[in-house]
Task: structure prediction
Amino acid sequence: MPASEGYCPATISVAPIMPLPSDNPTPTPIPESLRRQLDDFRRQLWRIKITEAITAGLLGLLVSFLLVFGLDRFWPTPSLVRLAILLFGTSLFVVFAPYWLRRWVWGHRREAQIARLIARRQPGLGDRLLGVIELQDQDESAESLSPRLRAAAMEAVAAEAASRKLGEALPPSRHRRWSFAVMASLALAAAVFSLAPRAGLNALRRWIMPLGDTPRYTFTVLDHPPESLAVPFGEAFELKLTLSPDSEHRPSSGEARYGHQPAVSANLGGNSYLFSFPGQQDPGVVECKIGDAIHRIAVTPVQRPSAESVTALIHYPAYLHLPPKSIDLRTGVLSTVQGGTVDIAIQTTRPLREAEFGPTIPDTSPAAEGTPAPPPFHAVHGSLTLQVGKASTPPITIGSTPFQIPFHWTDQLGLQGDAGFRLRVDPLPDQAPTVYLQGVDRQKALLPEETLEFEVFSEDDFGVNECGIEWQGELTGTRGSTAAKGEMQLAAGGPETRRLSHGAPFSPAAIGIGPQKLTLRAYAEDYLPGRGRVYSEAVTLYILTLDEHAQMLKSRFDRLLGELEDLARRERNQFEENQRLERLDGSELQKDQNQSRLKSQQSAENDNVHRMDEMSKNMEQLFKDAARNKDIDKDTLRKMADSMKSMKELAAQDMPKVEGKLSDSQDQRNTSEQAKQDMQDAVKEQQKVLDKMQEAIDKANEANRRFEAGTFVNRLKKAAGEESGIASGLIEGFNRSGGLSFAELDPSDIHRLEESHKQQTATASDLRWLQEDLGHYFTRTNKEIFKQILDEMQASKIDLGLDEVTRMLTLNHSAKSITSTRSWADQLNAWAKKLEGDMQSGGGGGGGQSPNPEDEDFEFNLRVMRLIQQQQDLRSRTRALEEFHRAIKPQTSTR
Result:
């Protein structure tokens, strides 16, 4: 064998071999014993290495499975880790075993490969075996050895090999250890499946399908733990984890950690663990460890769901005829009428999962003493209807008891809203409307031809239906008229009309109301069934006859004249003080104490100016009212006009001059001489003022005397009219009541006689006062005509005559009563004409002179003024009449 192949040829003693003459020598096979040894060696090698390959593959699979099982006991092994373990375990079977078989089985099929393997452990024997194997394939035509020699060499090597144990040349064997490891792993796996079959099967599935979604099996099993959790922002919260019924292990405690914060622990209570965490503001992960169960929960702190807006849809009671109304409940209080319903809608910051309201809570505040107890309260509750971003209640009936509605809701994150959120509902009774008159005094006297302008205002919390006025008359003694009664609708409202106002021109003459006392009031109606009308404060209207009107004006004139005289006295007192100041030197006037006195005088004069201006306006109104009364003679009006003119000039020109001079005297820039001069000028001007004021007073007194004298005429005429009225009333009922006793009279006739008796008594009383007033007036004026009238009245014994008529009315002596009342009426009219004729002839004072241009101008202006007043009254009465006809009702008048 060539040396280049690294073989050392063995030394063999052989006999000389003779060359055989042959052209195609036959190869010499190795001895059969040696071949059998090599075949046994190869089979033994293959068996060991195949066993090693199989055990390695099985060991890899078992170990990877057990590794997954073991890791899953401590943590949820990630899918990539399980994939790596599976690849490693199967690689021993899929990669290593084929490699091992190729190396040791496919790589050791020939005798030469076996010989080389033996040479690694037994180099000498192996080399000789390799030489023998190579000799059997040599070509003897090219070699020097003979076949006999080769056979002898092979026999020698076979003999040596037979004496040796080729099994010792086998490579190191691991199949026993690996088989033991496989058996141990298999036993461990069997123990796993026998002791924890569910854990084993779970690990097997997770091992076979590492990328699958098979969850890790734990002996401690939680019952549907959350994957994420929303907690209140900044508030301490609790996390409750419950054990599943099929949990094999029930640890006595567990722990949880929020992020990197210290862990918190919780003991097993019942079937759950309750972990308490402090308030959090940043998102984090809570890792919970309970036994071998590890669960991570993503925690997000969020604000609790709150109400962004709350609205109420109010459905009013049917009788109000009002459409539903939506209102904002920002204040948390709803005030609405009793008997309706309300739907409440809540807009929250996040969509809700569930929501409910109630049970409603009644108001427990004590009722006022004397207030009737409210009806029993019936609590309501229920679920809210959830819509997109909104939750609404069903209709809630509004009773008479205030109550509160608590609300509870949970959003889609599982957070509950504010537990204290509630609404208060205050039921409002449908209050009666309010109505009042504006622009008219509580008492007002006027002539029938005048028109009273005023406004009617009405308000209601839930709509004014209509407003108007009503009037009720009461006769005050004047006969020939009927007590008025009527009403007028001024304006119609509506369900949504909260305020209603309307002007009311009221003219007694336009609607046929004669002189009497009239009670006028406004009314309003709302929509509450059965309530009826609500009335304003009453206004009393005295509709006067001309003589009553004149007497009223006389009373106002008396008060105004008294005020004018009082002002004149004040002005006189100030004048005397100014005279004292005038006597001082200029230097004395400029001293502080005198300057203070001057300032006080100026202030007092300023007050007098304002009072005079106010009185002049009152005098002007009095003159206008007097001009309406045609029974007041023009001379009286002229005197009033003259007095009014003087008062206006005093207020506008004369008295302000005095005030101005007093102001000038206080000027610090004045010299002492100038101050003295200003004070003297003030005194001079004030003297003129006093003279003019006295002139105005004299004119007013003269007008007042004529006024008073004219009232005597009117009073006599009024008494005559009363007597004539009594006679007319008796004549009307004479056919029914004549000759009957009082007990036999019809009730209507009894009432008529009682009214006549009452009126006769009042007339007799008036005439007694009239005689007394005549006496006083004569004493003041010494006018002879008044003395004559008084003497005639006393001589006629009218007092006794009127008392006799009263007695006859009591006895129902109608015929005698009619005769007497007519007689006294004629006598009273005669005295009135006599007194009136004397006044027209100048006996009343101030008359009898030939007319002058100023009187003619005044009379012309008076006629124009009265014409304008009549035109204005006519226009006002027309408007009042149109208003009355527009709103008249069938039951309006019984006049």
Q: What stands out?
A: The longest strand covers residues 293-302.
